[in-house]
Structures are given as C-alpha cells and as structure tokens.
# Entry
Amino acid sequence: MKNFKKSLLATALSLMAISSANAVVTTSNMQATANVVGACTIEATAMAFGAFTPTATADTLAATSTLSSVCSNGVQYTLSLDKGTGTSIADRSMPGAIAENLDRLQYNIYQEVAHTTLFGEGVGETIVNVGTGVAQSTTLYGKILTNQFITPDAYAEQLTVTLTY
# Structure
C-alpha cells in the first residue's frame, strides 16, 4: 500500500510537470500616465497703518502687508492689485466709516520700501515670479502722506489681490 501511494504521487507530479511544460504564457505592457497641471494659491495679510495724526512732523505713515503665494514648480505667475475705491492706482483712498463723512484718506501701496513703484494692475505695476512649489513671500509697502486734514474716523477699504498664471 505504501508503494502504491508513492507510485500515485509520482504519477501526479509527472502529470503536473507535463501540463506546466505545455502551458502557454503571454505578456503585455501597461502604461501608467498622469497629466500634472499648474496650480496656485495666494493669501494676503492686512495692511494696518495704525493711528494717523495729520499734524505729525513726519512726512508719512508707513505699513506693510505680506502676500504668500504658492505655485507649482516652474509655473510663471503675475501678482496685481486693484485700485480699491479710489479713482485710479495713483489715487487710492479709503472712505470713512461714518455715513455723513465724505472725506477720503489718501494712501498708496508700493512694490519696494523706497515707495517709488506703485503696485497695481497696469504695465510696470505688477509683480512677475516663477513658482517653486513652496510658499514665496512678497512684501508690499504702504504710505499715507501727512497734512491730510480730514474728519476723525475709522478709514478702511477692501482691495483685491489677483494671482494670474
């Protein structure tokens, strides 16, 4: 009986070897693809000038704001800023909170600390950069000129920063 089991096992193994020797194997290639698209985000901090005293001896009141932009590596983008409620980029002005107050506080926003290049939407007023995949900071510089004898009030306006890519 022991020999019979060994003989049966040997026969089964032989049949398996014969059937795998006769097996047909085919292959195919599979391609994996993905399209990477550029993407960007932007955030801006408030530009808070603080208390403004029109009769102060200093010639300006300054403040800064930081833009934090993140764009995919290699994506060129442009930062711009609207004129707010003023009549133009060169004439930005904030309205007061009191409804009867028709005064406007004149100020502007610049690309550098020297306050020479306006930050806006036109030619030469925008900032162009290339994304690195990590946050990139851009500092904006604001200035209020003194000798604006206007009604005491809380002056503010909402500006729109645009990132185009």
Observations:
- The radius of gyration is 35 Å.
- The chain is about 10% helix and 30% strand.
- Helices lie at 2-21.
